[in-house]
Amino acid sequence: MLFFLKTVFFSRKIFIASIFLLIVFGYSPSFSQSVISGWVVDDNNQSILSASVYLASTSMGASTDYNGYFHFKVSQQGKYELIVSYVGYNKIRIPVLIGTDSVFSFKLQMQQENAQLGGVLILPDTTNRKRDFKEFKRIFLGETRNASLCEIKNPKDIFVYYDEAERTLVAYCKKPVIIENRALGYNLFYEIEHFKAIKSGFDVNVDFSGSTRFGEMADSISKFNHEKLRERSYQGSLMHLMKSLRSNRLKEEEWEVRIEYPEIRPDDFTINDKIRLHRKRHDWDSVNYYKEMKLLPIKSHLRSEPLHGNELLDKNDHELLVFNGKLLVIYMKERDERFQPPKGKYYPYQLSTILIEGGNRRIFENGYYEPQKDLYVSGYLAFSERVSEFLPYEYAPAKKKP
User: Is residue 142 classed as helix, strand or coil in its secondary structure?
Assistant: First the structure.
């Protein structure tokens, strides 16, 4: 089954009453680390105990103490999102650019959620809870080898609903979803902001976003195996691709990337979606039109030579991705595990397409890119970029000995 994953982070209207930020540069403690600290209070200026304050998709963060105070070190430079989260309050998001030995101090005031849970529409749970949760778990964790070694520790906190008419599965969890990943040796705390999976024929369009906090597991598989499996997850990932692109090392990192020029018709998922929509409206002329369109070949042509990376970047700013359009991406170092080849044959390579829209975006040294919206992946990356394969931004593979 082919999955399409939209890596879209929707904008949200989160009201922050006040944020006071003090940034000090040039501070040089004995260690080469930046520091983030501050206080978290409610709308009455009372301290909040046990609020989570962390850099999204990292293991760097802390909980507030009795006085609402937090303090943690940042070990790697790059761009991050500082997340402040507490049940019953609107989440706070602040972009932070970490340099060398920077010190950040915040005073953050949180606002209580309204009675409608921040605009989330809660529907009655279906009678097929077991079936729907199984499908949610399959889509959310993924179907890679690591997924079988992942366990959701708080399934009862997760609300799932399947709309039969719309063929849509939605999920919501007021608390962080706690995932134990015994393959990679992480405990993950994933705050779902949006989860929707729409079936269209044999395809599933998956659209979910949220923020992740990582913690090292005390004991699971051996540390050696963790490192081996983490590197396997990193190789061929979107993070790996972004770092390779930024450093102009696509070929050296065994990526084969080509520009794919426009097609003469939409992809099958889009056409199936149109057919479903017009069938509901009993608009049979339109249904037949899209059925005929589906019979047309998808004609596209590729730039013949694989790219190095700098062709997609600004000539004067090699961190700025200026390309908009579709890329055909093949990771040549690993095979696609979804296919079972005939005896004596090899798996095909990992083939993906990436559609980039919405103007320029900046890529930072830790692999983070912004804006996060309007970048869509399909093919192998849509299959593999699931929670069971997530790595923190501070992860870096071990350097090979010469």
Answer: coil
| Cα angle for residues 154, 155, 158 (degrees, 5° grid) | 105
| 84-143 pLDDT, tens digit each | 999 989 999 999 998 877 889 999 999 998 755 445 555 666 678 899 999 999 999 999
What CA–CA distance (Å, rounded) separates 139 from 169? 10
Residues 6+ positions from 156 with CB-CB distance below 8 Å: none
- Burial (Cβ within 10 Å: 0-12, 13-18, ≥19) of residue 46: exposed
Look up the CATH architecture of domain 19-109. Sandwich (2.60)
Q: What is the pTM of this model?
A: 0.78
- 3 vs 199: CA distance, rounded Å: 10
Amino acid at 251: K
Largest CA distance in the chain: 73
**Distance separating alpha carbons of residues 113 and 168, to the nearest angstrom:** 26
Residue 193 buriedness (CB in 10 A; 0-12 / 13-18 / 19+): middle
Q: Which residues of 84-113 are buried (b: 16+ CB within 10 A; e: fewer)?
A: bbbeebbbbbbebebeebbebebebbbeeb
Count of residues making up the chain: 402
Asked whether 221 and 184 are in contact (CB, 8 A), the reply is no
| CA atoms of 64 and 60, how far apart (whole Å) | 14
pLDDT in tens, 348-381: 788 888 999 999 999 999 999 999 888 988 888 9
Break the chain into its structural domains and give their ranges: 3-8+120-220, 19-109, 233-389
Closest CA to 39 of 15, 13, 21, 59: 21
Kindly report whether the peptide bond that precedes residue 371 is cis, defined as omega within 30 degrees of 0: yes
3-class secondary structure for 324-381? CEEEEEEEEEEECCCCCCCCCCCCCEEEEEEEECCCCEEECCCCCEECCCCEEEEEHH
Looking at every residue in the chain, the average pLDDT score rounds to 83
What is d(CA 114, CA 343) in angstroms, rounded to the nearest whole number? 59
Q: Could you tell me the strand order of the sheet in which 361-363 lies?
A: 313-314, 317-321, 361-363, 369-370
Q: Which of 29, 199, 14 is nearest to 112 (CA)?
A: 14
Q: Which two tokens stand for residue 393?
A: 């931004």
